[in-house]
Specification:
The chain is an alpha+beta fold and 335 residues long. The chain is built from 15 helices and nine strands. 50% of the residues lie in helices and 16% in strands. The N and C termini lie far apart (83 Å). Bound molecules: zinc ion (ZN).
């Protein structure tokens, strides 16, 4: 590669080197790994517009990252999600159209503008409020696109409520014989998990799933009704609640339990954070929980797998098949 060197006063061979350079961005010194062209003969830096633009862009990126500023592609994505033109987005936010255009081509947003558009993205109520106040500034087609987008967005449900809706729909899709003739009750399911996690030491997840199964099936055997209304299926290591990942995720995201790696490295231990709420359960149900706890207190996860593999509920069902509560009548390990 050859370029004109001002120091040598002639065209010279040159090379690109990488080194840390500091650029002022809005008054802050920002250091990035820069690419610089140098003369092979005298070692001076040579100006190169393409490399210089790249270095500045890296400094801007680093500044955005430090200040939590949205990138051009983020702003374009927010605008396109609502089917808005640059003019339309500007109208909703009370900005000038030129401002939106500049932010989308790489200019750094001001902090108040950054906060405003971030809120427009993350807070549906705020987006609705802006739209209500400023929709007359939009064209007819743009207005109807935003309107239909806002209609599709959930009210203001936090994500865990969507998880809960999903769980409800999965469990209610099962017939009664698979739910223990009982409506699914997420609070009871969550508190069963809290009960086992707070009354046993180092309960790994795979053991917990079988404790839930035994508790629901023992309750059904004794009173013809499960405790949680959960549906269970046949899996490699024994019967497990269907959709248990979503259930555990939901309970964890509500701050009731936490998962910690087990000392042995064999899976996650379930730790109770919330206190067990015994007011949700009948005396008979509490007795079932205590009995299951006492029976399996010292069992390892592997031990529980072996025990559950001997149950008719497991022997007579296929992989992934839902398990009928009718098998509760033949429980062997605990009655
Ligand atoms: Zn030179």
């Amino acid at each position: 590669m050859r370029a004109c060197c001002d120091v040598c006063g002639t065209e010279r061979d040159c090379r690109v080197v990488q080194r840390d350079e500091t650029y002022p961005v809005k008054g802050d010194p920002i250091t990035v790994r820069a690419q610089v062209m140098v003369c092979n003969e005298c070692g001076e830096d040579l100006f190169n517009a393409r490399l210089d633009d790249g270095n500045l862009e890296r400094a801007f990126q680093e500044y955005r990252r430090m200040k939590g500023l949205l990138a051009p592609k983020d702003i374009i994505a927010i605008r396109e999600k609502y089917g808005l033109s640059q003019r339309g987005l500007a109208a909703l936010l009370s900005w000038s159209p030129a401002t939106v255009a500049r932010y989308e081509t790489g200019a750094l947003p001001s902090v108040p503008h950054n906060e405003q558009i971030r809120r427009f993205r993350d807070d549906v109520d705020y987006a609705r409020e802006l739209f209500g106040a400023r929709k007359d500034h939009l064209g007819r087609l743009e207005r109807s696109r935003v309107e239909s987008m806002l209609r599709q967005l959930p009210e203001d449900d936090p994500p865990q409520d969507l998880l809960l809706q999903y769980l409800m729909s999965k469990y209610s899709a099962q017939e009664d014989e698979f739910r223990g003739r009982c409506q699914f009750d997420v609070d009871k399911a969550a508190n069963m998990i809290v009960f086992f996690a707070s009354n046993m030491r180092n309960v790994v997840k795979s053991k917990l799933l079988k404790l839930l199964w035994y508790a629901d099936f023992v309750a059904y055997r004794r009173a013809f009704k499960s405790i949680s209304g959960m549906a269970y299926c046949h899996n490699y290591y024994g019967p497990i609640p269907m959709e248990h990942e979503v259930l555990i995720w939901h309970i964890q995201s509500n701050g009731m339990i936490d998962l910690k790696p087990h000392d042995s490295g064999k899976g996650d231990c379930v730790e109770a954070i919330a206190l067990f709420d015994d007011s949700l359960f009948t005396g008979e149900e509490l007795q079932v929980l205590r009995d299951v706890c006492a029976r399996f207190r010292s069992a390892t996860a592997t031990g529980m797998t072996k025990v559950s593999h001997r149950e008719d509920a497991y022997v007579r069902t296929q992989m992934k098949e839902p398990i009928s509560y009718d098998y509760a009548m033949n429980l062997k390990a605990i009655q």
